[in-house]
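Usage

Read records sequentially. Each one opens with the input sequence:
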Amino acid sequence: MRWDDFRRSENVEDRRGGGGFGMPGGAGGLGIGTVLILGLIGWVFGIDPRILIGGAEILTGGQQQYERKTTGEKRTAPPDETGQFVAAVLGDTEDRWSEIFQAAGRRYVPPRLVMFSGMTNSACGMAQAAMGPFYCPNDRVVYLDASFFRDLEAKFGGCDGKACRFAQAYVITHEVGHHVQNLAGVLPRVQSVQHQVDQRQANQLQVRVELQADCYAGLWANRAQAKWNFIEPGDVEAAMQTASAIGDDRLQKRSQGRVVPDAFTHGSSAERVHWFTTGMRSGQFASCNTFDSNETVGRGQ
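and closes with the structure output:
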């Protein structure tokens, strides 16, 4: 994947190495005595003290203090290669989605992306590396622990070496796809319905949300390829391997030895590949309406 031509976004906030907790000073507004007490409690009960401190930060308003400090600050792309890559992919999503929204007579408002290490605060609660990348609609931010990129190769086997870049771009653009859904009003509507139905139906709706975000990632790839001709041999295959590796059926099979389709929240491997491919082949926003589709591809056994 060639990405040197991509414009670097200024909407990347780098919280890596921020005192070990992803927050300024490491513990925000908590006093040193409180931090020591929480650390002792964690040691006695075998609880990671970072989780206790992070929870206390949220309760005492540490997150709001952090947001006030960073609001209005000029941001630049992180200087390291990973930071530059993330800023480049985010920047190109901003340009491509701006074109798509403009064609529909709307203005695209890009999300922020927070890079962090270990854990950090978000408007959706504590963000932790174990959660993987996610989009928080409450603050319109994509949260990304860069260690996920290493896990992509080591744990999921979705890519190898240089070919990982396109797979990593797929992960980022999938989360940006959730932001597009939020701007389009899809996320609020789905969440409202999910509160009125049982868990199985709520899961089915969530699968539709995730598959649409996969399709939007493919749509970005289509538009970026038309602009930059940036895809190299092996890139698409690596992204498809990644989509397959993180399908609900594969993850369930690996963790519990069996597949429970009613518990799916992201879609099967075949479904994820199908919808990414749909977006990439068509390049059309309308082709990604997973909610009107009756397709269920390869749900697993």
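Summary fields computed downstream for this record:
- The first strand starts at residue 12 and ends at 14.
- Residues 12-16+78-288 form one domain.
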